């Protein structure tokens, strides 16, 4: 097998936030696979084949990438943000687990700036102390698991970064998540809604959890719920490094 497979993170949206290592991998690629909007961020050029696909075809995409690399291609699978955070790196290794013939294939995972970290930087430092990330999509796990993790994170006083809060196919989930956190006694915590981070239509808004409304988020929004000590300083939001 003379090809390679690279799993790369394109960052939150702005090309300036794509790492040089990822840019070099894209420049050397013969094939690029990914969810169609992410593949569209890569400029066509001679010698490069783009393979866009639907967002629920992760395992098929991973299997196709392994096959193309085994046939000699310099293959790159792209994700937004970081490929290891709710993205394609895990899908590739899941596909590899069921395809032992590809286990000697050279594979690299190239990190990217996550939506969570980009959003936190825009707001200030809401993740300045212990935090966790929870994906609110119930496509791959039951809602009961999401609710349990939200309650445990609230009880542990973590700041919480919430991915995929509200989609057209499941508009009620984010409202349920807000209710769970309110029931857990988090109503006074600060919540930052970071939409389209690093894009021209970026919007950052911080309110208390009691003031938060489900319609304030969509699938382009990263939501950060502070811990009990997260506070404002001017227009900024930060979580102190010291537990009081």
Automatic annotation (TrEMBL):
GO biological process terms on file: methylation
Entry keyword set: Cobalamin biosynthesis, Methyltransferase, S-adenosyl-L-methionine, Transferase
InterPro entries in the cross-refs: 4pyrrol_Mease, 4pyrrol_Methylase_sf, 4pyrrole_Mease_sub1, 4pyrrole_Mease_sub2, Cbl_synth_CobJ/CibH_dom, Precorrin_MeTrfase
UniProt EC number: 2.1.1.131
SUPFAM superfamilies in UniProt: Tetrapyrrole methylase
One of the Pfam families matching this protein, by short name: TP_methylase
Pathway(s) of this molecule: Cofactor biosynthesis; adenosylcobalamin biosynthesis
An example Gene Ontology molecular-function term: precorrin-3B C17-methyltransferase activity
Domain Tetrapyrrole methylase: 4-212
Name the UniProt record assigns to this protein: Precorrin-3B C(17)-methyltransferase
UniProt source species: Bradyrhizobium campsiandrae
Gene: cobJ
